[in-house]
């Protein structure tokens, strides 16, 4: 049975300041837990209802009621199991991301978008994502839910993006996705490089565009004047990555 103190602690992790303070975050749902258990050293506690059967026999499991899960879950409809996970500290080594396709996200604010991008990166075998300091937190519960477990296979690094890209530009090309760029389907693309994706509303800032070796865009195939103004950031990222990998 969860104490009032336990409930207060777990629910506090819905907020970034407490995740940073305790170096811990919440992961919910059977699929996320299945991936998480591949890295058992990160798991602090696992709370589940009688409806859930743990995939392994031993671990920090605790059976709780549906009512208790409702109190600690960040979901409108709790999904059987919730885990407390230790945040693994990671340091970016620029040499480690040479000769790879790497994503760079500037000011992505929507947790669902970030989670979808992480899942997409996992699908395309992209191991590293650079995030500007003002991107949404990777441990936001909505982000984790959207990754469907991919968060544990892709490394995110929160950095001063301008300074980091300026340094990386010495070693590999930088591609900025922008409406004023070259057609991605007809322009020449390197096998590896840094693919920059901008803010959902404002795109990429001028200071990052100026660092790019090449500006690219995804053309619309709708010739009507009445059409969507732009693509969702996660969709644009997926299409661009697919084209890089296809080459």
How many domain units? 2
CATH class of the largest domain: Alpha Beta
Roughly how many Å apart are the termini?
Answer: 55 Å
Rg over CA atoms = 20 Å
Largest sheet: 6 strands, parallel
Shape: elongated
Low-confidence stretches: none
What would you give as the CATH superfamily of the largest domain?
Answer: SPOUT methyltransferase, trefoil knot domain
What features would you describe in this structure?
With 247 residues, the protein is of the alpha/beta class. It folds into two domains: 4-86, 2-Layer Sandwich (60s Ribosomal Protein L30, Chain: A); 94-246, Alpha/beta knot (3-Layer(aba) Sandwich), CATH 3.40.1280.10. It is 31% helix and 22% strand. It has nine helices and ten strands. Helix 5 (111-123) links the parallel strand 5 (101-105) and strand 6 (128-132). Helix 5 packs parallel to helix 6 (141-147) and helix 5 (111-123) packs parallel to helix 9. The longest helix is centred in the last third of the chain and has 14 residues, at 233-246. It starts with a helix and ends with a helix. The mean pLDDT is 93.
Short summary of the structure?
The chain has helices at residues 4-12, 16-22, 30-36, 66-72, 111-123, 141-147, 161-168, 206-209, 233-246, and strands spanning 24-28, 43-48, 61-63, 81-86, 101-105, 128-132, 155-159, 174-183, 193-197, 214-217. With 247 residues, the chain is of the alpha/beta class. The chain folds into two domains: 4-86, Ribosomal protein L30/S12 (60s Ribosomal Protein L30, Chain: A, 2-Layer Sandwich); 94-246, SPOUT methyltransferase, trefoil knot domain (Alpha/beta knot).
């Amino acid at each position: 049975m969860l104490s009032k103190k336990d409930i207060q602690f777990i629910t506090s992790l819905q907020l970034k300041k407490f995740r940073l303070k305790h170096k811990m975050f919440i992961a919910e749902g059977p699929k996320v837990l299945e991936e998480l258990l591949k890295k058992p050293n990160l798991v602090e506690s696992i709370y589940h209802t009688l409806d859930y059967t743990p995939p392994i026999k031993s671990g920090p499991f605790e059976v709780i009621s549906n009512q208790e899960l409702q109190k600690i879950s960040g979901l409108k409809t709790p999904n059987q199991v919730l885990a407390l996970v230790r945040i693994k500290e990671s340091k970016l080594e620029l040499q480690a991301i040479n000769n790879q396709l790497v994503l760079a996200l500037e000011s992505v604010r929507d947790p669902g978008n970030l989670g979808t991008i992480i899942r997409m990166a996992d699908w395309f075998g992209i191991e590293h994502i650079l995030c500007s300091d003002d991107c949404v937190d990777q441990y936001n519960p909505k982000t984790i839910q959207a990754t469907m477990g991919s968060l544990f296979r892709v490394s995110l690094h929160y950095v001063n993006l301008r300074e980091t890209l300026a340094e990386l530009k010495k070693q590999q090309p930088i591609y900025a996705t922008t409406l004023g760029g070259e057609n991605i389907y007809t322009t020449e693309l390197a096998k590896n490089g840094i693919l920059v994706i901008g803010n959902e509303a404002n795109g990429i800032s001028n200071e990052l565009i100026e660092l790019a070796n090449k500006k690219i865009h995804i053309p619309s195939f709708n010739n009507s004047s009445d059409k969507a103004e732009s693509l969702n950031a996660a969709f644009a990222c997926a299409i661009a990555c697919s084209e890089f990998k296809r080459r």
